[in-house]
Amino acid sequence: MLNRMLRKTTREYPRKTAVVYGETRLSYSELERMVEGLAAELFERGIKPSGCVAMLLPNCPEFLVGFYATARLNAISLPLNPMLKSDELAHYFEDSKAGAVITDASHVEVCKSAIAQLDRNIELIAIDGDSPSVLPFAKFLDDDSPIEEKADLYEGDVLYAYSSGSTGRPKQVCRTQKNLVSEANNFTTTTECTSEDNILCVVPLFHAHGMGNCLLAATRTGATLAILEPVMKQGKSVDVPFVFRRDRVLELIEQERVTVVPGVPYIFSALAESPKAKPIDSMRLVFSAGNFLSREVFDKFAESFGIPIRQLYGCTEAGSVTINLEPVSGLQPDSIGLPLRNVEMTIVDDDGKEMPVNVSGEILFKSPALTDGYRNMPELNKDAFKDGAFLTGDLGKRDDQGRFYITGRKKIFIDQGGYKVDPFEVEDVLSAHPKVQEAVVVGIEGPYEGEIIKAVIVADGDCEKREIVAYCKERLAEFKIPKIVEFREEIPKSPLGKILRKDLV
Q1: 490 contacts: CB under 8 Å, gap ≥ 6
Q2: Which end of the chain has a smaller Cβ tally under 10 Å, C or N?
């Protein structure tokens, strides 16, 4: 199904630019030929239908080529965070039974180290040259493809991803070709994305946000994907904080007449604070996902660029679910909007009964893009997936206009001696302290039943535990006061800026 989608786009727009990446410009015709070439290479290396191909790549054209080539074989892609270490990679390679890994020069050694830990052969396909480029696959362009055309009709498994939300051990999510094609259709028809659009790609493609709202959105419609190229040093890509790339991003938006800008709050905050920030008339849709968008960032961006940021809600299990597209005149910045086309969403109580308007409950939705469940977790699946719907664990509400809002996280409450403590409430108090720059609250296992409240703080200057505790005692009930206070230089976060609470436990 995915390759039928790509082939349809290629036939309609063969000479249209599919990918812009530094000085590289690939047409849809060239992209599809590259896909056929790599599919042939993977086939020769023993990748069979339902086999797994891991991809440890930065955002680059090869990511698209690797993803579609794997799908062409009716095999399964496993996109991984390039920041993972060898032990972490070894776990994912083994858990997914990966038969091959596609990577670049910067990550060859860490992949070799991970593979060496396993008692089986894994093919390593590395991008050659001084920087990521599409040239290594060019030698296959004129070869006959060994892949049968019936692959276009395949609806089965195509993507592995690991989801843990903000807590818990990673859960393997498997999504099908039918899921991803449905997501692409739902998103692009809702947002009216067409071949006239140019989509900025600065969020990671290995994440559901980048996969669905950049890669799939572009290749489904014939839009151009403008990928921010990496900083290279001695032939290897170097991780550079986004704040040091923001001016290049603004240049890319103007240069390529970017119309659609997917991002996360941190990205939009950095762009809005750039001295070069100014209205760019090509931008028609700017949206944020992955974390809560503060009113401060919303206002700052709107003031700098003259266009509002819309909130999108999604998850690893289904990709995009809702987006706020209401008119600017009545825009509610904190709303996640309405469900995408073909998506049904409601708010329910613990018994599954629909909640009244403006009353908080758990978010439940149905979508053709939704996975069937987590692999080898029958008990969890029984609780999370009911009658084709997914209980997200997120708390939300719906207003009298039908708009949805996120109000919290159901499963993140801390059980403190029988009391249920909302960590966000404690975090709000801590964040108001004049010496606290950032605060995260988690629950850790206590010596008896229940949990102990732990506060992890990034301080602004000298700060001591006694100051924090005394401040909380004036503002919180005794059972809500942190018993452990830990000071750190920074809070661990995912590439999309989501706080990694499990790393703080």
Answers
A1: 458
A2: C
223-264 pLDDT tens trace: 999 999 988 887 777 878 888 999 999 999 999 999 999 999
Closest listed residue to residue 168, CA positions, set 380, 351, 396, 446: 380
Phi, psi at residue 93, to the nearest 5°?
-60, -45
Domains along the sequence of the chain with CATH: 2-305 (3.40.50.12780), 413-504 (3.30.300.30)
| pLDDT at residue number 141 | 41
Q: Long-range contacts for 269-275 (Cβ within 8 Å, ≥24 apart)?
A: 269/297, 269/300, 269/301, 270/242, 270/243, 270/246, 271/246, 271/301, 271/304, 271/305, 272/297, 272/300, 272/301, 272/303, 272/304, 272/305, 273/300, 274/246, 274/247, 274/250, 274/304
Amino acid at 94: E
Full-model pTM: 0.82
Residues sharing a CB contact under 8 Å with residue 44, sequence separation 6 or more, in sequence order: none
* 393 touches 410 (CB < 8 A): yes
Alpha helices (runs of H) in 73-107, residue ranges in sequence order: 86-96
Q: What does 428-473 look like in DSSP terms, one character per residue?
A: HHHHTSTTEEEEEEEEEE-SSSSEEEEEEEEESSS--HHHHHHHHH
Instruction: For residue 72, give the H/E element and its range.
Output: helix 61-72
Which has the closest alpha carbon to 317: 233, 258, 374?
374
- In this structure, the strands spanning 344-348 and 361-366 are antiparallel
Neighbours of 303 (CB within 10 A): 10
DSSP line for 151-212: GGG--SEEEEEEE-TTSSS-EEEEEEHHHHHHHHHHHHHHHT--TT-EEEE-S-TTSHHHII
What is the rounded distance in angstroms from the CA atom of residue 338 to the CA atom of residue 27? 34
Residue type, 326: E
- Tokens standing for residue 409: 């996280």
Helix (H) / strand (E) element for 285: namely: strand 285-288
Please name the residue that has the structure tokens 């499990």: 502
Nearest CA to 208 out of 160, 241, 245 is that of: 160
Query: Angle CA(316)–CA(317)–CA(318) in degrees, nearest 5?
Result: 95
Nearest 5°: phi and psi at 398? -125, 135
**Cβ–Cβ < 8 Å for 366, 341:** no
Q: How many CB atoms lie within 10 A of CB 301?
A: 25
Which residues does the chain have with pLDDT short of 70? Answer: 128-152, 164-169, 410-411, 417-419, 447-450
